[in-house]
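Training component of the fellowship. As part of building independent skills, the fellow (R.M.) carried out the full modelling exercise for a liganded target. The chosen ligand was adenosine monophosphate. The inputs are recorded below so that the supervisory panel can assess the work.
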Amino acid sequence: MLNLILFGPPGSGKGTQAAKLVEKYNLLHISTGDLFRYEMKNDTELGLLAKKYMAEGNLVPDEVTIGMLKNKVNANPDVAGYILDGFPRNVVQAKALDEFLAEKGEEVTQLIALDVKDEEIISRILSRAVTSGRADDADETIVRSRIDVYKNETSPVFDYYAMFDKALMVNGMGSIDEIYGRLCKALDNNANEEE
Ligand code: AMP
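Fellow's submitted model of the complex:
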């Protein structure tokens, strides 16, 4: 299986690139942010719980997030692999993911991080707000605190997978197609190395 973590700050293009990669590599795209928004839209208990954390740009508690991720993976066993987008968001989640995959005889194949400058991220998110309708995209203060959460809590996940030689940084600036080309190259190089 190809179990990929698409990593990077909010607004770095993970969702856009994941949508393109799933087609090429026949993977299931799992975005924990999308799963939470779906729950919120349907006014479920989980959605109500997540709402207040998301509105402030904070992380939803690990127990809830990890449980939701496991359910989604378990409900879709017949795929060639997964692209995780927005998960893991801290080292506790990363360790839980590794343990969960190991129980299935699987592991994270690769983490690829999209490197994008802060000011570019903020401008991308604020313009995305016009179409996304996401309250957490529209308010610059919330956007900045999401970036802080990324730096403080999420970026150590890169170092964690780097310890296992599984973390790769890709330039996330440029056009969608340019970035997609870089990601495909990184993935194909990785596949060749493993042969
Ligand atoms: P995203 O769509 O990935 O930007 O996520 C939007 C919001 O959902 C985040 O700001 C968090 O509040 C919540 N969220 C998404 N994924 C996670 C996660 N893995 N752990 C905790 N909270 C998450």
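The panel noted the following from the submitted structure. The longest helix spans residues 176-194. The two ends are 14 Å apart (CA to CA).
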